[in-house]
Amino acid sequence: MPRTAGRLVQECGAGLIELRDDGDVLSFAAPPVRRTGSVDAEYLGRIVAAYGISPEQVIGHQWVDNGPGWAVVQLATAEEVLALEPDFSLIPDAMVGAVGAYPAESPYAFELRAFAPGQNVAEDPVTGSLNASVAQWLTSTGQAPTRYTVAQGARLGRAGEITITVEGGTVWVGGVATTRFHGTVIVD
Q1: CA distances (Å), 103 to each of 9, 54, 111, 151, 158, in order?
Q2: Is residue 14 part of a domain?
Q3: Range of the domain at 41
Q4: The CATH number of the domain where 130 resides is what?
């Protein structure tokens, strides 16, 4: 890829991922989803049981695996997502999320929570990979606009704000970033 001001490419487990710097906001291009489609009934039942919800509360579900193995359930409201108290003993190896809509007057379109007991992470405060693949699902099915903001991490006291933008078919996942260290690397 030719050099472009404000853009760079990062090599990671998902491949070569384009990053862009828009001032205070750093964004990455969502990698391709490796597994899509409905979650099978048995696994969905385990997720529902672990979440302590009724099957009727699930208004959608999808494999949104862009590498880590994510599956997500969609609930009707952000309030329902925030109320989840998962029992990880029922899904000890899972990489699962939940997404629910905020009312139209909210500054956020959705609340998203990410649970990764399979990686010894009970709940992740902000999850780029899950936000990326959920955005690909929701925007491609018309359930979300091409630009919206997601809230994540409130239940952990670490409220995060993620901006989703679709441009030219690419989903960009971004947020405000703070530089914590700075340095120079010389490669021979």
Answers
A1: 36, 22, 11, 13, 21
A2: no
A3: 30-160
A4: 3.10.310.10
